[in-house]
C-alpha cells in the first residue's frame, strides 16, 4: 500500500491534519515530518526527519510526499538524496494542496491505488473547492451523465445525511465500492462522477435530499448496487 508523508513547518498543523485524516477510516499509513526539535524556534523542517518518515512509510509499494511551504520542498529533496537509490526511485514529491491533497491521497492509498493514481487524486483535490466558488473556471470538472445504455443496472437513493456527502461519508462510499469488479458510474441529475475517486465524487457537491443513481455493469453488479443501497440506508456510516 502506498505510504503518505506530510512535511510541514508546524508540528501542530501536521498533527491537526493527521487527526482529520484519521476520521476517514483509511488503512493507509500517514507519517509526519513536521517542525524542528528546538523549543524556542519550533517552526521549520528537517531533512533527516523527512528521510526517516519516508523509510517508515514505505512497504515497498512507494511513498507520496506532500509539503506546505518552499523550504519544506528543499528538505524533501534533500531527504531523497539521503535515501538509498532503490527507495528514492519509488518516492514522489507532490505539489498538491496540503490539506485537500493529503485527505484525497489517504483515501486513494487506502483503496489500493498505485503511486501514479494516488498522486493524481491528490493533485485533483482542489477541484471540488474551485467548482463550488462563484465564477470558477473549474465547472467542467464533472462529466455530463450520458443516458445509460443496455447492460447497465441501476439503484437510486436519496441522501439523508444532514451535511450531505462531506469527506468522511464520501470516503466510506469510495472504500465500500472499491472491492467490486463491476464498472460503476454515479450520477446526480445530469452530472456524473467516478464513485471510486474521492475528488471526483466531491465534485458532485451532494447535499441532503439529493438523488443519486449508481449504475453498475459486470459480474458483481447486483452486489455493488446492494452495497450502495445499504450504505445509503445507513447514512454512509455518518
TrEMBL record:
Catalytic reaction(s) noted: dihydroxyacetone + phosphoenolpyruvate = dihydroxyacetone phosphate + pyruvate
EC numbers, comma separated: 2.7.1.121
Keyword Kinase annotated: yes
SUPFAM superfamilies (UniProt xref): HPr-like, PTS system fructose IIA component-like
Top-level taxonomic group: Bacteria
UniProtKB keywords: Kinase, Transferase
Gene Ontology MF, one: phosphoenolpyruvate-glycerone phosphotransferase activity
Residue span, PTS EIIA type-4 domain: 1-145
CDD domains found in the cross-reference section: PTS-HPr_like
Domain HPr: 152-238
Assembly and interaction partners: Homodimer. The dihydroxyacetone kinase complex is composed of a homodimer of DhaM, a homodimer of DhaK and the subunit DhaL.
Function field: Component of the dihydroxyacetone kinase complex, which is responsible for the phosphoenolpyruvate (PEP)-dependent phosphorylation of dihydroxyacetone. DhaM serves as the phosphoryl donor. Is phosphorylated by phosphoenolpyruvate in an EI- and HPr-dependent reaction, and a phosphorelay system on histidine residues finally leads to phosphoryl transfer to DhaL and dihydroxyacetone.
This protein's name: phosphoenolpyruvate--glycerone phosphotransferase
Species, as recorded: Aeromonas bivalvium
